[in-house]
Specification:
heterodimer, A: mainly alpha, two-stranded parallel ribbon, 23 helices, 76% helix, 1% strand, B: alpha/beta, 7-stranded mixed beta sheet, 11 strands
């Protein structure tokens, strides 16, 4: 390996460090606790996790692909708002959506109260779906996570050459057939990427599962660690969770076996969006409004309703400090993570050696691991570095510099990189896959250096996936809770921390303003992303 | 090499100034599992009174403990504050505390609400009684936690998940009083009496009784206090349909858990930390600290808030908090086996 690759390898391994800690825990199996868990709760964790994965996988695929297809192919009333509105649920932390739906739909909420008044019945006399259940968790995760699929698939549909469709149409295929036989297979890697991201987040979710009383690996990890007080056992449960992730990644790889999805861009034109009229326009509007309403408008209005009583908080200086903290931390983490992803994805493209590929895959698995496990996996290596620095500094200068990594923003940024690298890596890689190797070759034949190819050829083509990655990570960091909670410095809070502290005390009205602010601050990047994507589709269409 | 030397000198110089800056003002650093809103105001009063700055980091008890452990002797934390006996026990096990000898504190905090070696001190108490609907339940039929396993309560009980610390502590106490075997048999019957799968928090259980999803709930009183004094009229109305029953009054008494504080082993500001603990157990802050969250003060003779007075006096289970901690792991395993999710 060259020095460059070695460095790349080292960084990938460093990012994968918490995962290695988790995997290594299996070397010293705690049979006592494992057999206890196996006999009591693990079968349930496995079956619940499988049901969640399958149902959420199907749900986000249907919602994400259908909306991406409508937005990229057709023009209908409301298109302008929907094209970015469909991204809004991304800004909602899943557990907050879970709280709002519970507030609305459980027996004490307005919906059931209305039913009882109108039909003059009491609780138990009528059937109403229980939102706090496995099914409710599937619903919440679907409407919150489908934007991953929508975002990445829409970009893929927009980049597909019109030539392919036109040939299909000329050959007599209808609109539906050309979608099913041409567009879908071409967009498969993008869909797989989006679904994988959504499912990794599903596996790592703790807040929703805990609140809905759904027992899965994440709730089991907490329980084993806090309740039984067995950190090793908890790590080993996390290692079992890792197996799910590995299978997931293998399925994704398998789904794009053999196929190389490079687009031939020679005869590229912007796909003209076709105007829809009548019931077709109505149907397209319905398909696209539904997830926006379920994933954003309803929960956000409920939050707003709760926040009305707490309107004076907007005048508090400390609230704006929280907002500022959240924003700059998110921006910084997003930039670091995307640069890292770009560098790693590039390294893999140029030196696709087996160890490097393995290390990068490892680095990209952190997304499915609950943030708390990553945070704890990071604590000891960070503290070790600190102890070394303090010891050296004392010896050299007789000065104690204090903790430089643990309990500072550096620790937070490191944790975010571990956790969210996969989001940016997948987005950037799927963008990179659209660039043919022939383009590199021709550029190289023309005497361009590697760096020049990057700047002049790749970056302009990668602009939209890079921006998408940047915003996805930004929004994710702003929502992130467990790692932030463990690793943050003194007197340093974020909106997510505030929202959680209030919500976990069951003070939902007080959780409203910070949660809304996460959404509001998340809105701006989402709109930026949408505009950039649109500009891009116009620019490349010449 | 020369560059490196220069760099190091610069770093050393800046950090030296930083160090001198931070140590100029008296300060004390807390890792707290109690939420910011429920502790910050009293810390601000402390700063106002003594001029000692307080830096606060909130989080979950075990995560903070893990951080404390990995930071070791370099930890900035002087105090560790948590809201459950189990977490205090694990902190003692992890050798996270140093003893504090203060006559003032020892006088204020009764013996069974501090650790035997004065490693930590209770600050407030959280009672976990039974809640019932006076319309549908005759309180004379209620007796103790154990009697909730009776067949008459089939399909009538709401309680939250056994992931919850307070349920774990409750079962840990039952193990101590009645033995593991009897407790496990009880848990199996108790679980089969649940009106629904455990969901939500303590408020949701009380609401369940108010709305007729179930007739009986087990929950901490301060959630009830918040509901009775809520801004939301619906919530107030719901709470008024529910009453407290103090269980096991002829036996061990109602289960109480403790929130407590201790000085960390590697604290740098021990004097300031001691002053803060003394302040927190003083009569004045005990009153606020307990009232802010409708908890019971740990110190005798402190006036209860109006809401607490209405609920009446009751016999507390005076089991040692250390025992609750010791039994916590066994409690969770037992609940796993009994199918209490």
């Amino acid at each position: 390996m060259s020095r460059g690759t070695l460095l790349l390898f080292a960084v990938a391994v460093l990012i994968g460090l918490p995962l290695i800690v988790v995997a290594l825990s299996l070397l010293n199996p705690q049979w006592d606790i494992l057999s206890h868990l196996w006999q009591t709760v693990i079968p349930e964790y496995i079956s619940h996790s499988l049901i969640l994965l399958i149902c959420v996988g199907l749900g986000v695929t249907v919602l994400g692909v259908s909306t991406a297809w409508c937005i990229s192919q057709y023009d209908f009333p409301g298109w302008r708002y929907l094209s970015w509105g469909l991204l809004l649920p991304l800004a909602m932390p899943a557990y907050i959506t879970a709280y709002t739906y519970t507030g609305l739909l459980d027996y004490a909420g307005p919906v059931q109260q209305l039913i009882r008044q109108v039909f003059n019945v009491s609780i138990g006399d009528y059937w109403f779906p229980n939102i706090r259940s496995l099914g409710g968790a599937v619903f919440v995760l679907c409407v919150v996570l489908y934007p991953y699929v929508y975002l990445i698939t829409r970009a893929a549909f927009m980049q597909q050459s019109t030539a392919a469709f036109e040939s299909a149409r000329t050959l007599g295929a209808g609109s539906f057939k050309s979608f099913w036989r041409v567009a879908m297979p071409l967009a498969r890697p993008a869909i797989a990427t989006g679904v994988t991201l959504a499912l990794m987040e599903t596996l790592a979710d703790y807040g929703t599962m805990e609140y809905f009383g759904v027992t899965v690996f994440t709730t089991g990890i907490f329980r084993t660690w806090y309740g039984i007080g067995d950190a090793q056992g908890a790590l080993q449960l996390s290692a079992l969770l890792l197996i799910f992730v590995i299978v997931l990644i293998m399925i994704e790889r398998y789904s794009r076996r053999r196929a190389r999805f490079y687009q031939q861009r020679s005869s590229n034109r912007t796909p003209q969006r076709r105007p829809l009229k009548g019931w077709r326009a109505g149907l397209a509007s319905f398909i696209c409004w539904l997830p926006v309403i379920l994933g954003f408008l309803i929960p956000a209005s409920q939050l707003l309703w709760w926040s009305v009583e707490k309107s004076d908080i907007w005048l508090e200086a400390s609230f704006w400090v929280l907002t500022g903290n959240t924003l700059w931390l998110g921006l910084l983490a997003a930039c670091i993570t995307v640069l890292l992803a770009l560098w790693l994805a590039y390294g893999r493209r140029r030196h696709p050696t087996r160890p490097l590929r393995a290390a990068i895959t490892l680095a990209g698995m952190g997304y499915a691991i609950p943030g708390i496990v990553i945070a704890v996996g990071l604590l000891s290596p960070l503290a070790w570095f600190d102890h070394q620095i303090i010891a050296a500094s004392k010896w050299l200068f007789d000065v104690n510099p204090g903790l430089i990594f643990s309990g500072t923003v550096i620790a937070l940024l490191f944790a975010y990189s571990v956790r969210f690298l996969s989001v940016s890596l997948q987005t950037v890689s799927s963008g990179l896959e659209q660039i043919t190797p022939q383009m590199d070759d021709s550029a190289r034949t023309l005497g361009a250096s590697g760096r020049r190819i990057l700047w002049k050829v790749h970056l302009p083509l990668l602009k939209s996936p890079l921006l998408a990655a940047l915003i996805l990570v930004l929004v994710d960091v702003m929502k992130e809770l467990p790692a932030t909670l463990v690793l943050r410095p003194f007197d340093f809070n974020t909106l997510a921390v505030r929202a959680f502290e209030m919500a976990s005390d069951e003070r939902l009205a007080d959780a409203g303003p910070p949660a809304l602010m996460i959404v509001a601050v998340g809105l701006i990047p989402v709109m930026m992303l949408s505009r950039a994507l649109r500009n891009k589709s116009i620019k490349t269409g010449d | 090499m020369r560059k490196l030397n220069r760099l190091l000198t610069v770093i050393a110089a800046t950090s030296a100034t930083l160090v001198s800056f931070t140590s100029a003002a008296a300060e004390v650093n807390i890792y707290s599992a109690r939420k910011e809103a429920l502790i910050k105001p009293v810390l601000e009063q402390f700063t106002e009174k003594t001029g000692i700055e307080v830096n606060l980091l909130t989080g979950k008890a075990d995560a903070l403990l893990a951080r404390l452990g990995s930071e070791g002797e370099n930890t900035p934390a002087d105090l560790f504050l948590t809201v459950d006996a189990g977490a205090l026990y694990r902190a003692v096990e992890a050798d996270a505390f140093q003893p504090l000898n203060s006559k003032l504190v020892e006088k204020a905090v009764p013996e069974h609400f501090r650790s035997k070696d004065n490693l930590w001190f209770g600050l407030s108490l959280r009672a976990r009684p039974i809640f019932y609907s006076p319309e549908r339940v005759n309180p004379e039929k209620l007796e103790s936690y154990l009697s909730l396993a009776d067949e008459q309560w089939d399909d009538r009980i709401c309680i939250r998940s056994s992931n919850n610390l307070y349920n774990q502590s409750l079962v840990a106490a039952l193990i101590e009083h009645h033995g593991a075997e009897k407790t496990e048999a009880w848990a199996e019957d108790f679980v089969s009496n649940f009106a629904r799968k455990p969901v939500g928090g303590d408020r949701d259980q009380i609401k369940g009784v108010a709305y007729g999803v179930c007739d009986i709930a087990v929950a901490n009183t301060y959630y009830f206090g918040h509901m009775l004094n809520s801004d939301d009229a619906d919530e107030r109305e719901a709470a008024q349909k529910v009453k407290i029953f103090w269980p096991a009054q002829d036996a061990q008494g109602a289960h109480v858990n403790v929130s407590g504080i201790g000085i960390t082993k590697h604290a740098k500001n021990v004097d300031e930390a001691q002053k803060l603990i003394e302040f927190l157990v003083s009569e004045e802050s005990q009153k606020w600290y307990a009232q802010a969250n409708y908890e019971y003060p740990v110190r005798d003779g402190v006036e209860w808030s109006e809401t607490l007075q209405k609920w009446g006096e009751f016999k507390q289970d005076d089991i040692s908090m250390d025992v609750l901690g010791e039994n916590n792991g066994e409690a969770v395993r037992l609940m796993n086996r009994a199918g209490w999710r």
